[in-house]
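User: I'm preparing a small set of examples for a lab meeting where we compare how different chains pack in three dimensions. I only have the primary sequence for this one, and I'd like the structure in token form so I can line it up with the others. Please keep the answer compact; I'll paste it straight into my notes.
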Amino acid sequence: TRDISLEMQLLSVEEQIARDPMLATLSVLDNAAQSIRNRITDIYLSRVAQEYDLTVTVGRDIDLTQLRGAEIISTGSRFVYKESSDGLASYAAVFAYNIKNYGNTVIMLQVEQKGDWRYRGYASILGESSPGEVLIPSSYAYARYQGLGLLSFRGNYAYPVQMDASLSEAVYARGDGFIRQGGFTHFIYVVADAEAVIVSRRTIDALFYGVAGIFIALVFFLGLSLPAERDRRRKSAFERGYFSTRLNVVIMLSLTLALVSMALVSVFFVYDRNEQNRRTLMTEKINSIAASISARIRGAQSTADLRNQDVLSMIEDVSNNTNSDVTLYDTHGMVFMSTAPAVFERNMIDSRIEPEAYRNIVLLTSRYYIQKESAAGRSFWCMYAPLVGDGGNIIAIICAPYTDDTYEFETNAVNHSIMVLSLFMLLMLGAWFMGRSVLERMFGPLLQMGRKMEGADLDHLEYIEYDNEDEISSLVAAYNRMVSDLSESSRQLAEAERDKAWSGMARQVAHEIKNPLTPMKLQIQRLVRLKAKGDPSWQEKFDEVSAVLLDHIEMLTDTANEFSTFAKLYTEEPTEFDLDALLQEEISMFSGREDIRFDYFGFAGAKVSGPKPQLTRVFVNLINNAVQALDGVPEATVRVSLRNSATEGYYDIVFEDNGPGVSEENVDKLFTPNFTTKTGGSGLGLAISRSILNKCEATISYSRSFSLGGACFTILYPKE
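Assistant: Understood. Below is the structure token output for the 720-residue chain.
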């Protein structure tokens, strides 16, 4: 690519070079090419010489075939442009001089771009490139082919000078987007029919993809598992596992600390080792630069002895040999010569030396000094060394930036850290699973014991199966013995309750029988005395006594029925039946009464299991209580409802009326045996009803009817 700035400089000095009498005189001398070059460099192209190689050819007959095909940079100019074989910019001009008494001489000046400018010094640090230069990252390589021949290249891949058949076919015939060869992946771009550009990088191996995949998978797994773990911890207090959680946390913390320590030590070791290697390389490099310059300035006594073109050419040679820019500071710390003057002229880097470097080199007389500096937002290492004259005093300070592109510590450190981190996460995940498995097996019996104890009742006690012989087995055995003892105690308690119930029922029956028998006995004795006296009124009294006796016999019959129902509480087996149909049947038995309105709200298919005859008695008792409570109430209404309960797995069976309801002081006594608000009632109906429902794992409760204002009994009955 043409360098417009250079062309402007060439055009500005072209006529001066053509008219320079000194150049004309030198052109007739033998071996004067170097002297002519020095004059052109010193007077006309001093700046150009730092970025371009100047070549001078002198003679009467010069071969100009190499300029064939070149392009004139401007109309009337002697300078022509032609791209060199390696893709760099190249300029040339032919100057003819007519010397009196000698004849014509010719000077050909060639200006060619330096091929290694991009790969050294401040240019690589600041991301600068020379005109026409291809700027690519150091981890990539670049090649440009014209036809089958290599035109230019950069990087650390050995491109073939001539394409072989397979590469030519891949590039030009098949037009492959990329190929893999020699451990590199080559990206192919066909610019024209016979021109192609290849950009290459090292092939990423399967290990890298594996580590990256594992790392990403672990990050996703941890990201998804943390919310699930939080949800799991929201369970009941027992399920949270106080001890198991803390043991797991202790194990994970211990493992994490150990692995993090190992990872940090490993990364620190790699970092420290590379820093030592870097410092060793920098020390060797600055010593080499200082030795090379010192060997070529013998006889210099002061800084003034260094301010000439020969010294500049010398440090450029050193710069080329060491692949690094070289800058000379005077003893006051100011730049006076550099192979990269542009960075100082454009104020990209301060022209004054860093104070700490000056202090170490001049004041502390250190043999070399290395420090990290920054410019244009980039950080880099700078190496300093004193330049000592023949008198033993410091006449200049050498500075060179360290720009070894092959040193990839950051990449190595990152890759190493990712591998260590991935391994750490894998080990941590494995330890987490193993720890949870061991802890779950360890605390499983305890959790099982807690769940069974939490949900158990005296009728449903379960044993725990545990085959291991360890510290927990004794606890499990004790629990199983406790279950066995509780089962036996439950059986004995049930028998005692039944005996107590029978005893209480017997006393109640005796009381209920005794109450009507006493007036019956007195009435019969009175009737016998009247008859014995021959009192004619005994016949009239007979009818009266008969009515009283019949009433009391009816009371005895009811008592016997209540006793019979109580006796069946523990004997009837549950059966499956349609709850909706049963409620409708019982309501229909009362619907013949014209003074009471019966409403029913239910739905079909409500299947339940229980002792149907006993439940029938419960429903009849509740409906009958409602009917009796409505005696004398205008617009009497009884409403029965069947619906799905708000409690999961249950039905609500609701009995309501618009009667007076139960007074507040009697609500707590409703389900107590012997309590009744009815004349002639036994007080056993609601108590027996609750006992029947309890056996069915159902409940009954009382409240005020919200819609009717009277009594409201609600049965919560389990679904099938």
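A couple of notes for your slides: Residues 471-565 form one domain. The radius of gyration is 56 Å.

User: Perfect, thanks.
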